[in-house]
Amino acid sequence: MQATVKWVDGRLFVGESGSGHAIVMDGPPDHGGRNMGVRPMEMLLLGVGGCSSFDVVDILQKGRHDITDCAVDLTAERVDAVPAVFSKIHLHFRVTGRNLPAAAVERAVKLSAEKYCSASIMLGKAGVDISHDFEVIEG
Questions:
Q1: Pfam families under this entry (predicted)?
Q2: Contacts of 106 (CB under 8 A, 6+ apart)
Q3: pLDDT confidence of residue 98
Q4: What CA dihedral angle connects 103, 67, 96 and 55, to 10 degrees?
Q5: Do 37 and 24 form a contact (C-beta atoms < 8 A)?
Q6: Strands of 129-138's sheet, edge to edge?
Q7: What is the DSSP pairing of strand 129-138 with strand 66-78?
Q8: Is the pTM of this model over 0.85?
Q9: Chain-centroid distance, C-alpha 102
């Protein structure tokens, strides 16, 4: 896997993935940025959510469950020091489907957390307290 991050100006950077997709990252004005893009630590948090959501949807679809939507709300805390690393991340999954058993969603979330999601497992091994919960919505 490869990526390139190029400085544009101020605290604005453009990252390009090895697969050719680009994203803009910027800082807040009080740190020299213009708030023109996602903060780098927000990108990390989004990566955790994307990785986990990918797993949950994949596991449920492979189990032939009729899911119609999946969203994850992430909340994170950072230490009040430099570096301001994450200390806690909580993922709350909202999975919508037709006749979707809660046990299947619970299993998918657990498998992602413990076996498949490289991003959250890596951060957990680095000392971040990562927790998960979910709700099932009929629809």
A1: OsmC (PF02566)
A2: 134
A3: 97
A4: 70
A5: yes
A6: 66-78, 86-98, 129-138
A7: unpaired
A8: yes
A9: 22
User: How far, in whole angstroms, is CA 99 from its chain's centroid?
Assistant: 26
User: Residue 75 and residue 43: Cα distance in Å, rounded?
Assistant: 13
Length of the chain: 139
- Convert the pLDDT of each residue in 54-75 to its tens digit: 999 999 999 999 999 999 999 9
Torsion of CA 110, 67, 23, 48, to 10 degrees: -10
Q: What tens digit of pLDDT does each residue of 80-116 get? A: 999 999 999 999 999 999 999 999 999 999 999 999 9
* Tally of CB atoms within 10 A around 110: 14
Cα torsion at 80, 123, 27, 90 (round to 10°)? -70
What domains does the chain contain, in order, with CATH numbers? 1-38 (2.20.25), 40-138 (3.30.300.20)
